[in-house]
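User: Predict the structure for this protein chain, please.
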Amino acid sequence: MKRFIAVALLCAINFGSKMSAQQIIPLWSAGKVPNYQKTSETERRDTGGIIAVKLVQSPDITVFIPTRQTATGQAVIVCPGGGYRLLSYDFEGTDIAGWLVSKGIAAIVLKYRLPNSKSNIVPYLSPLMDAKRAIRTVRANAKAWNIDKKQVGIMGFSAGGHLASTLATHFDDGDSLAKDSIEQQSSRPDFAVLVYPVVSMTKSIMHTGSRNNLIGMYPDTSLAKLYSNELQVTKETPPTFLVHAMDDNTVPMENSILFYEALKDNHVSGELHVFPTGGHGFGLGLKKDAVEQWPDLCIKWLRGLQAAANTEIQR
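Assistant: Here is the predicted structure, written as structure tokens:
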């Protein structure tokens, strides 16, 4: 796997003076993508408005590293939304990365496999496999990327929020005996940020499209419960920041409220912001009135987590 760490620098991109560079790194070595079968499908990338990626065949991460002068040591894996049908790759991916890097936070945009592709053997398994692999890859490269491996979190939007909340509740410690050093790393995020997330797969407030695409129109009851992440929160779930709008008619705000209540019930730190307007899919909230505040609130929360972690180290 060392050859992945040494992937060539593809291009330099400026976001103000903060962005240093980006790298695209495959998550899996060629021919070894788990839960994958070869088909005639090819990945599609539509650029009619937002960049929409469909039928992902080769999952990867695009890594944005801030300059050493501005780096905080924190890193965030960004999961774009799209109803588990496509990835809103720029609006909820690379645009978010630009904002994070401007704050000194490394951003890793995850291009994860979508369950509607025929290349999946068991469709609902692939997104979580890719998310776990992404966080392991970041931790394995932490030193090279000037990242604190104990400050690696996950952020997701809409269905990407479901994937992020799934990782926050379905992680593992890694396999210490694995020959692949990446697989030895823990997949537990140190924190999670969920923005207008899909959370439940069992209640009337669920986003039906995401449910249908991930686990089918008529899933087994136990599978629907397993992927209803408000039911999977434990005391080991990481601290979580949630954002929603009251007038979200696509993914009701109750998804965030249920997850927040589960955090509270399990004595896990959380912060929930529900804005009166903003609808669904507001991204960074630009020109969206009150909801435009959420990025600044999130950065304040992230800095608080880091300060608390640094205090704990000094004790």
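Residues 1-20 have pLDDT under 50 and may be disordered.
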